[in-house]
Amino acid sequence: MNLLRLGSFPFVKASRLSAALIICHRHADVDAYCAAYGTRFLLKKLNPRVKVWTACPEGLGAPAERIAQSFPMPVTQKMTHHDLDLIVIVDTGHAGLLKEWVEVVKGSKAVKITVDHHPIDDSIRSLMDYLLVDTDSSSACEMVHRLLKAKKIKPNLKVSKALLAGILYDSQHLRLARRSTISSVNDLCARRDILREVKDMLRLPRDRSEVVARLKSAQRLKLFDSGGWLIAVTRVGSFHASAARALVGLGADVAIVTDEKNDETRATLRGSEAFEAKTGIHLGTDIASSISKSEGGIGGGHPTAASMAVESYRGDLAVEVLKTLSEKIGASVKPIT
To answer: I need a labelling partner for 98 at 20 to 30 A (CA). Which of 3, 34, 53, 88 fits?
Structure first.
């Protein structure tokens, strides 16, 4: 397993590329889907004859489904053969997020590369030949744009819009942008000002079911204090990330949203920028990854956005998150009534 340089991607001579597979994480979000879309374009530019399959385990999340209508691409449900030259895994920090496709990866003799901006779990490292990872990048789409730039390939208008959508989505409309992010946005908008158009794509009205989930999360809210930080805990059956973002928007410093489905307990975490800046707590590595590893589950994410899933969990996962958070903060947890 080696760190990969941008210019050397895909580490397979383009003329020898005949078949490639791109895999997103399960319930792919906008960044994952659009990164796969951009990677497919890149591979086709490197060799127009290459056959490219794209897999999205367990389908797309609701926002990605809406974006996919503007940027459609064929998504395969099953791989009938493993005769591949290249496998590219995008935006996926843990092998458990590949679901059934992990067996395809393990069984293939293809060169395997991951393109990601998350801290990479050992479960992915052990599968890969090469890593292309930059945890300072705003998104996987920003990294795909940099790959295109390194290969001196100009994205067409659709690919530019798709990559910009992924960057805006994962950077919270540039609130989390770094210098490299702004550089990518500038390049993608150079030939045509598409920023407002793409922002409008991401502002599609929420489905009624998502609105109901957000309201229910507030209705079921339990509030705690740890060291002066407000921690909101709730449970909802769907749209966990949206509900967690809504609670932080209401003023919580950290939101914990849990759910149990098909013998799997999930927790979605969101934190404010102020919480991360002042405490230095990384919700992905310090909380989600730490707890999931100790419980035999999968988890990880970013400093202010993370998730985890544990099968057959006995207990209350929210309580475990609260305990771990309070230990990191260095203060006891007190309920606020």
So the answer is: 3
Q: Residue 77: how many CB atoms within 10 A of its CB?
A: 8
Q: Please state, in angstroms and as integers, the Cα–Cα distance from residue 201 to each residue in 37, 65, 162, 214, 273, following that order.
A: 16, 12, 10, 21, 25
Q: Alpha carbon 290 to chain centroid distance?
A: 18
- Quickly count: other Cβ atoms within 10 Å of residue 172's Cβ: 14
CA distances from 260 to 210, 316, 317 (A): 18, 10, 10
* Euclidean distance between CA atoms 103 and 168, whole angstroms: 32
Helix (H) or strand (E) holding 225: strand 222-226
Cα–Cα dist 63/33, whole Å:
10
CB of 18 within 8 A of CB of 110? Answer: no
Dihedral of CA atoms 138, 140, 146, 148 in degrees, nearest 10, equals: -150
Which tens digit of pLDDT belongs to each residue from 127-148?
999 999 999 899 999 999 999 9
Q: Which residues, 6 or more positions from 221, have their beta carbon under 8 angstroms from its beta carbon?
A: 232, 233, 234, 247
Distances (CA, A) of 197 to 70, 144, 201: 12, 21, 6
Residue range 70-106, pLDDT digits in tens: 999 999 988 766 689 999 999 998 999 999 999 999 9
Please check whether residue 208 lies inside any domain of the structure: no
Q: Which is nearest to 226 in space by CA: 174, 271, 171, 172?
A: 271
CB 289 within 8 A of CB 303: no
CATH for 160:
3.90.1640.10
Look at residues 169, 140, 168 and name the one whose alpha carbon lies nearest to residue 35: 140
Give the global pTM. Answer: 0.85
Burial 227-259 (b: 16+ CB within 10 A, else e): bebbbbbbbbeebbbbbbbbbbeeebbbbbbbb
Judgement on whether residues 57 and 178 belong to the same structural domain of the protein: yes
- Pair 39, 170: CB distance under 8 Å: no
Residue 313 forms part of a structural domain: yes
Three-class secondary structure of residue 284 per DSSP: helix
pLDDT in tens, 263-322: 899 999 999 999 999 999 999 999 999 999 998 899 999 899 999 999 888 789 999 999
